[in-house]
């Protein structure tokens, strides 16, 4: 546990009272509620330690904090050298190496080699796939049978990832592969896997490593098959055949790591972004968007109000750095705080109110709205995710909301899901059986 939190570190900054290791673990387990209850209105930052005076874990708030986290890459360790380090010398040792974890020249190289998957010709292909996937979904039916919209969005997003990212069919074996890739990071964030690292077969970490090796073996076969084929329009085929101006190309282990990064950043997160967007649209009387501009505003407002990823991945400080008046010590873990920025009344008046009109013609500070990060560390898949969300919701004939009690639950310390199924029904629209309730209302005022 000490390898993750160095509770001996000191910092000259105010924060919540308590025992550092206890506060750190409480934050990892319940980060949204911990931050809202103990940090949001009491400690404006830009640097807030989870325990006052202790430098083991800090939150970076406001423009100064976000700018440091997202742009000062050389002052942070690579995630795959620290928290997400894997045993070296194995075929799968680079599975946590990706553009999302790199710094400096490695980050720039990976970003350069990945850019072709976002070119217009590729995006046009993705849009066609998104529309075809929607037509096969339960949202396109009119049978009136209730279904869980969150689970359906997961199915939609998984199918889109398989076809657009991997260029493979949506069959049982490939669905299992997609689920296994997505589970890697989620399972790794289990404290028993993350904090107690033993390769022994009977340990949680040892079992996770065997799962990792199995996923890598399947991805390696797929990558080698794609290399042998002619270039196609799916992202994996593009990556396998991309050569930059220097003759550089990605190796098989590098491509496997990037695929894992793209799945981790864009699968369940995109599905939940659509879930929260549809919930706010259906749960707000008179809020059904009629135009593309109104839909865009509704999506942005949902991403602000109910962030799918309330806090960033942690970054380890590689040397003492100053953010505002505070020096953060080498070894501290730093988190950016999208949830707190999105609910800052200085940037968004009445922050708990769902108000899509606030986005009409508005210019928002990019460091105040962080659904995909900002600057060099802005998610490379942001355009892919945005296109998927707007294509899917843009084709929708708005269903009726049947479930009104909805909890905002963080799974594995990263992504916000509804606590239980959220049922909807297609066909003739009916008013909701009542106002939306549940813990989501802590973020979204009635």
TrEMBL record:
- What keywords appear on the UniProt entry? Heme, Iron, Metal-binding
User: Looking at the keywords, is Iron present?
Assistant: yes
A UniProt-annotated Pfam family? p450
State if Magnesium is listed as a keyword. Answer: no
Task: Give an example GO molecular function.
Answer: heme binding
Q: Which cofactor does it need?
A: heme
> Can you tell me which residues bind heme?
379
Question: What family is this?
Answer: Belongs to the cytochrome P450 family.
Protein name as catalogued: Cytochrome P450
- Tell me what organism the protein belongs to: Herbidospora galbida
């Amino acid at each position: 546990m000490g390898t993750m939190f160095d509770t001996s570190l000191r910092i000259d900054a105010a924060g919540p009272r308590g025992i550092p290791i206890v506060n750190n673990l409480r934050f990892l387990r319940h980060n949204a509620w911990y931050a809202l209850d103990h940090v949001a209105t009491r400690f404006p930052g830009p640097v807030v330690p989870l325990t006052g005076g202790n430098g083991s874990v800090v939150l970076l708030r406001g423009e100064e904090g976000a700018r440091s986290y997202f742009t000062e890459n050389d002052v942070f360790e690579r995630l795959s050298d620290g928290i997400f380090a894997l045993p070296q010398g194995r075929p799968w040792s680079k599975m946590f190496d990706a553009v999302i974890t790199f710094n400096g020249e490695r980050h720039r190289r990976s970003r350069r080699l990945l850019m072709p998957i976002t070119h217009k010709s590729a995006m046009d292909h993705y849009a066609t796939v998104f529309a075809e996937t929607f037509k096969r979904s339960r949202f396109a039916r009119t049978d009136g049978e209730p279904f869980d919209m969150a689970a359906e969005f997961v199915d939609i997003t998984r199918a889109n990832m398989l076809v657009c990212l991997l260029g493979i069919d949506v069959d049982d074996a490939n669905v299992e592969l997609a689920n296994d890739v997505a589970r890697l990071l989620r399972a790794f964030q289990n404290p028993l896997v993350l904090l107690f690292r033993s390769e022994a077969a009977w340990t949680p970490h040892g079992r996770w490593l065997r799962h990792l090796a199995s996923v890598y073996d399947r991805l390696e076969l797929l990558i080698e098959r794609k290399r042998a084929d002619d270039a196609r329009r799916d992202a994996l085929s593009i990556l396998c055949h991309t050569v930059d101006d220097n003759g550089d190309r990605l190796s098989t282990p590098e491509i496997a790591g990037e695929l894992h990064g793209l799945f981790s950043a864009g699968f369940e997160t995109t599905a939940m972004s659509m879930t929260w967007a549809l919930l706010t649209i259906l749960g707000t009387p008179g809020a059904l968007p009629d135009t593309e501009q109104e839909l865009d505003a509704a999506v942005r407002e949902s991403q602000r109000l109910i962030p799918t990823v309330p806090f960033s991945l942690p970054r380890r400080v590689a040397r003492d750095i100053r953010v505002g008046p505070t020096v953060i010590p080498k070894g501290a873990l730093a988190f950016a705080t999208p949830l707190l920025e999105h609910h800052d009344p200085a940037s968004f008046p009445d922050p708990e109110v769902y108000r899509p009109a606030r986005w009409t013609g508005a210019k928002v500070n990019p460091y105040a709205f962080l659904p995909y990060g900002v600057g060099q560390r802005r998610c490379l898949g942001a355009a892919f995710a945005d296109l998927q969300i707007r294509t899917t919701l843009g084709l929708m004939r708005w269903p009726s909301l049947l479930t009104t009690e909805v909890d905002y639950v963080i799974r594995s310390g990263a992504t916000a899901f509804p606590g239980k199924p959220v049922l909807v029904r297609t066909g003739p629209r009916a008013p909701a059986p009542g106002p939306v309730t549940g813990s989501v209302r802590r973020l979204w005022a009635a």
